[in-house]
Amino acid sequence: MKKWQRDYGLATRMFMTMFMLFVVYIAFIAALSYVFEGSIVPIMLFAGIMLFAQYYYSDKMVLMSTGARVVDESEAPELHGIISRLCIEANLPKPRVAIVDSSIPNAFATGRSPEKAVVAVTTSLMRKLNSNELTAVLAHELTHIKNRDVMVLTIASFFSTIAFFLVRYLLFFGGGSRREGGTQIMLAWVASLLVWIISYLLIRALSRYREFAADRGAAVITGHPSHLVSALMKISGAMDRVPTEDIRKAEGMNAFYIIPAISGRSIMALFSTHPSLEKRVAALEKMSRDMEMR
């Protein structure tokens, strides 16, 4: 088994995403300050407070929304045993372990830091995967924790959320303009919409790359990329047999899951939270070939 190595590609992309969003956001505020007076400030403060609460209590909110139940070693000895071994390999503090009673075979990690993290798996996932496949999935989720990409995405969404609030505010209330003119209101609305779209696309691009990074991390930690390939194929194939109602309920958690829950619709790659299964499998198979050649 190979020791964990930092993913510099992901670290660079997280930094560049934050930097680009910061530049866009500064230009956005400069444009709005030309049109508005203090009416923008309350919206920004409200968005900031809401997102701070989301960031600080993200683990509790996700567990509550999914119905996940934290379990101790006596309730789930296999899960705890696998995670303990993987945490030693990845040099991570052991996260809390949770189980979700769900027909959807999936897993996710949440928490603002490694010390506050939670790894959750569904009952369906534990039934469908063998020990090696389950280990690979858990290594994927622990890589998210190691990379701290949940925290970065939460911070990055601050910019997008403020722009989204402003789009709604300007559309329904018109804001306060120095010139009391419809042209200025329209320009501000267009600027807000553009910033929201740019932020949305940047965050989705980062989300897709972080899944590739977590796949690579799992392959390195376990030393067996084929185990994750097998797990991904099983999870994806099982999605077609999950009741539509259950899929719809879980769609809000797509960004967290190892495989997104999609209710019979194709999603354009540009707007997806995850890369396609085909691309993920191809990347893992390439890693497997490279490992065999060493």
What does this molecule look like?
There is one protein chain. With 294 residues, the chain is mainly alpha-helical. The protein has one domain (8-293). 66% of the residues lie in helices and 6% in strands. The chain has helices at 8-35, 40-56, 58-66, 77-90, 123-128, 131-147, 149-172, 182-222, 225-239, 244-250, 277-293, and strands spanning 69-71, 96-100, 107-110, 118-122. It has a four-stranded mixed beta sheet, with helices on both faces. A hairpin with a 7-residue loop joins strand 3 (107-110) and strand 4. Helix 4 (77-90) packs across helix 6 and helix 8 runs parallel beside helix 11 (277-293). The longest helix is centred in the C-terminal third of the chain and has 41 residues, at 182-222. The protein is globular. Mean pLDDT is 80; it is low at 175-179 and 263-267.
Features:
mainly alpha, globular, 11 helices, 294 residues
Head-to-tail CA distance between termini: 13 Å
Q: Assess the beta-strand content as a share of residues.
A: 5-15%
Number of domains: 1
**Which H/E pattern describes the elements?**
HHHEHEEEHHHHHHH
The assigned structural class equals mainly alpha
Strand order of the largest sheet: 1-2-4-3
Portion of residues within helices: 55-70%
